[in-house]
Structure formats: C-alpha cells, structure tokens
C-alpha cells in the first residue's frame, strides 16, 4: 500500500518537473521539452530557454525541496515537536548572518559565494545550539534543543538586522537572497551544494529506525540498545547538511519543511521509515509547483517562490493541524 503510494508520489514529482520545464512567461510545448532532453538543438530558441533558464532552477528546486522535506521530518522527529521546522536549530538564522557578513564585509556578490558562507553559518549556528542545549543534566533533550535554537536564532537575527540597517548596499543585495528563490542559480551552484545534500539525504534515510526508537523516550531507547545522545548528534548533523546547503542554495524558504511532513503523516502514520522518503519526494514537487505558480500569476514578471510557498503553506498547514485525525508524532 505505502509502496504504491510512493510510486504515485514519484509520478506527481515527474509531472511537477515537466511543468517547471514547460510553463513560464513563455510556454514551451511538451514535445519541445522532450526534444531538448533527447535531441538538443542549440539553435532552437525554445530549447535554449529550457536549458539555460528552466533546467537550472528545476534542478535547484529538486535539490532544495528534497533537502527541506527531509530536514523538516528529521527536526519534528528529533525534537518530538510537530511545529518544528528546519529553522529550529538556528540553521536559517546562521546562514542569513553569514551571508550578510559575506556581502557587507568581504564583498561577496555571487550565489556561488553565498553557498559556502551560508553553509558555514548554518553549521556553526547548529553547533552552538547543540552546545547550549547540552548544558545541565540529561544532555541535549528535545525541549532544551528547541529553547536553545529559539534563543540563538533570536540573537543572530538581531545582529543580522543591525548590519542591514546600517548598510543599505548590503541590504539591497541580501533581500533578493532572503526572500527565497530558484531563479538565478546556475547548475554550477547546484553542483557545489550537491555533495552535501547527497550525504545528508543518505544519512537522513538511514535514521528512520533511530527516530522511531527515540519517539518511545530515552529510557525505552536505551533499553533497546540505542544511545539517544549519539542518535541526536547523527540526526542533527544530517539536518545541518541538508538545511544548511538548501538554505544557502535557494534562500530561507518557509513552510516546505513544516507542512509536507504533516501531510505525509496523514496517510503514512508516524513511521519515519516511510515519512522520510515520502517527504523527500513530495517536498520538491510542492516547491516546483509553487515556483510555476509564481511565474504565471504575474506575467510577464514573476513572484519569488519564497512568497508563494508562504501563501500556499500557511492555510494548508492550518487546515492540517485542525484535522482531528491527523497522525501524531
């Protein structure tokens, strides 16, 4: 049953990819899209649109969406908090602060540069959250991690705003990254983030059984032979790899990692061995559909995908949490 549902989810993702390649300010027939893949003709204007503009943003959408879906599922399972999202460990705040410093202090102006600084900032912020959450007895419990993440995020965002308010040039460059977008990112940038995302995805998919055991409580996990502290470190490292690279790649996109795991658990239940692969497939489908909507609702211009995901995700999330039969963590 669940295996057939996953196959259906892959079909939905394939349709979203085709829509992302074919639909925009200039619509491209599906047969042209197929010919671009099978028999590319550089002299064909429509095929050039597909290869130079839409293919890179589709690849970025696939990578960032899959990473955010996995990271959101990991965070909700790790903290046992159904409202947790990839930003809970301070990842988004750390990436934003690092990008601001890169622009304002070092003069970095390319997305290729943002990737490295954003990833480093996300990793350092997550490490700081884990260190703060480890103080006191019982180590880094879910509640302490959530509180530490909120505190670190608030502090980093305060520093970020202070830098932006004092430097209008930095603000002008940063705001295009902060809103979240798939446009303007080349395949080279995706290739830079790809190895981190691949390692993070493999680690996330291998952590399903760990999360199931942690969901029983620390005492039960120890009784089943699992070290809760090491399991949390492993899952947290996966979140950093996934969310750090995705945030650096596409900006701090909201609601993808928060909404999709809830929707998935409505029909898979709380078993993370299924919620993780489902989220990895459906999150990029949602992100690509949101990107396509952003292209068509304001032709010939477009609305950034970060705005569209917020508009779509907020009411969907409210509807999901109000359902009485929504699967619990």
Structure write-up:
This protein has about 325 residues and is mainly α. The protein has a single domain, classed as ABC transporter involved in vitamin B12 uptake, BtuC. It is about 75% helix and about 0% strand. It has 14 helices and no strands. The protein is globular, with a radius of gyration of 20 Å. The model has no long low-confidence stretch (mean pLDDT about 80).
Summarize the structure.
The protein has 329 residues and is an all-alpha fold. The chain has helices at residues 2-22, 30-38, 45-79, 91-104, 111-133, 142-166, 168-178, 187-206, 208-214, 218-223, 228-250, 256-268, 272-296, 305-322.
Write the CATH homologous superfamily: ABC transporter involved in vitamin B12 uptake, BtuC
Q: Could you estimate the helical fraction of the residues in percent?
A: over 70%
Poorly predicted spans: none
End-to-end Cα distance = 21 Å
The shape is globular
How many individual domains?
1
* CATH class identity: Mainly Alpha
| Helix-strand string | HHHHHHHHHHHHHH
Largest sheet, strands/sense/barrel: none
Strand portion: under 5%
Radius of gyration (CA) equals 20 Å
Number of helices: 14
Pairing-aware structural class of the strands and helices?
mainly alpha
Overall pLDDT: 82
What do we call the CATH topology? Answer: ABC transporter involved in vitamin B12 uptake, BtuC
Mind telling me which CATH architecture this is? Orthogonal Bundle
Membrane topology: Multi-pass membrane protein
Organism: Streptomyces evansiae
Subcellular location: Cell membrane
Keywords: Cell membrane, Membrane, Transmembrane, Transmembrane helix, Transport
């Amino acid at each position: 049953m669940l295996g057939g549902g996953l196959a259906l989810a892959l079909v939905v993702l394939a349709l979203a990819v085709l829509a992302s390649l074919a639909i925009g300010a200039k619509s491209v027939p599906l047969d042209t899209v197929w010919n671009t893949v099978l028999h590319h003709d550089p002299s064909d204007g429509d095929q050039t649109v597909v290869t130079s503009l839409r293919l890179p943003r589709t690849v970025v959408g696939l990578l960032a969406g899959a990473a955010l879906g996995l990271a959101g599922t990991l965070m909700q399972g790790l903290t046992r908090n159904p409202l947790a999202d990839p930003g809970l460990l301070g990842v988004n705040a750390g990436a934003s602060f690092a990008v601001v410093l890169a622009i304002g202090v070092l003069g970095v102006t390319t997305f290729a540069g943002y990737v490295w600084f954003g990833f480093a900032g996300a990793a350092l912020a997550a490490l700081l959250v884990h260190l703060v959450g480890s103080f006191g007895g019982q180590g880094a419990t879910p509640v302490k991690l959530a509180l530490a993440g909120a505190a670190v995020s608030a502090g980093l965002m305060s520093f970020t705003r202070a830098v932006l308010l004092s430097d209008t040039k930095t603000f002008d460059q940063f705001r295009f990254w902060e809103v979240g977008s798939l446009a303007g990112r080349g395949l080279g940038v995706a290739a830079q983030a790809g190895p981190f995302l691949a390692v993070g995805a493999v680690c996330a998919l291998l952590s399903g059984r760990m999360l199931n055991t942690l969901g029983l409580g620390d005492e039960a996990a120890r009784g089943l032979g699992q070290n809760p502290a090491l399991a949390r470190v492993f899952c947290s490292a996966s979140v950093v790899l996934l969310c750090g690279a995705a945030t650096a790649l596409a900006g701090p996109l909201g609601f993808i990692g928060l909404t999709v795991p809830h929707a998935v658990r409505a029909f898979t239940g709380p078993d993370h061995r299924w919620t993780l692969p489902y989220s990895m497939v459906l999150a990029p489908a949602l992100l690509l559909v949101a990107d396509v909507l952003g292209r068509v609702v304001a032709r010939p211009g477009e609305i950034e995908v970060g705005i569209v995901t917020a508009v779509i995700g907020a009411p969907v999330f409210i509807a999901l949490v109000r359902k009485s039969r929504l699967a619990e963590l």
